[in-house]
Write a structure and sequence with these properties.
Length: 253
């Protein structure tokens, strides 16, 4: 709240941290910004994979995400209020359209990416079969609700297993808080890259580095060594969580 004042023109905020899993109180952030006449841009790249987004309810001015986070292709998605997309000053060629939203992305569109993004949404909706003519959005809400509950259960096991392992440090808020089923951790004395490589040899894929969340890695004291990141997807099983915990314990010992 102390960062928002009469000089604020734009508040850019992440909906959820791709490094720590934290879900921010974006509704309150939007309200604070709008109370001083500022616009709000929400980075929902990590959040979009774990919740159904309602830009009207959020009352945001801009929101961006990417379909690759929810099982689609590498294509970006930008929502913006139509009047802002129509009026905002952007560099553009004279022959390109003046209408919104086409004026923001000119030339031939990424049609294969657009089709792939739609297929990813259809895939998620298909995890909750339609009943009594339910809409795709209704099925998406049901799917996301069930995946959230399943992810919370799996994440609790993952957090407990890692946090109880000697030499392992886990970061972020614990299970039961407002978060996604994503965790970053380190094994004392082992660089993140070595941990990720050793897990890969055991058939377990994790990410390592700062995940473009450089400030998080710096504040945790791992700017150079990096962090190890694991998360629960729609296909993650209890057996896979147990395998990860077991493998980390082997490395830590």
């Amino acid at each position: 709240e102390s960062k928002v004042g009469k000089k604020t023109r734009l508040l850019a905020i992440g909906a959820a941290s791709n490094a720590l899993g934290t879900i921010n109180d974006i509704e309150r952030a939007v309200s604070l910004a709008h109370s001083v006449g500022a616009l709000v841009f929400i980075d929902a790249v990590h959040y979009a994979a774990h919740a159904v987004i309602d830009v009207q309810r959020l009352d945001c001015d801009f929101l961006a995400c990417s379909a690759y986070k929810f099982y689609g292709p590498h294509i970006g998605v930008l929502y913006g209020r139509h009047e802002l997309l129509r009026e905002i000053e952007i560099p553009k060629l004279r022959p390109s359209p003046d209408t919104a939203p086409e004026r923001l992305e000119t030339g031939t569109q990424n049609h294969e990416g657009i089709a792939g993004a739609a297929a990813a949404v259809d895939f998620l909706a298909s995890l909750s079969p339609a009943k009594n003519g339910e809409s795709r959005r209704a099925r998406l809400k049901k799917t996301m609700g069930e995946l959230h509950a399943n992810g919370e259960s799996l994440f609790a096991e993952l957090w407990r297993g890692l946090s109880e392992t000697r030499r392992v440090r886990v970061f972020g808020s614990p299970p039961g808080t407002h978060r996604t089923p994503t965790v970053s951790f380190v094994i004392d004395g082992l660089p993140a890259a070595e941990v990720a490589s050793a897990l890969a040899e055991r058939g377990i894929f994790v990410s390592h580095g700062n995940f473009y969340a450089q400030t998080v890695a710096e504040r945790l004291g791992y700017a150079d060594e990096g962090l190890v990141r694991a998360g629960c997807a729609c296909y993650t099983t209890q057996d896979e969580v147990a395998r990860l915990v077991s493998a980390v314990r082997q490395l830590a010992s």
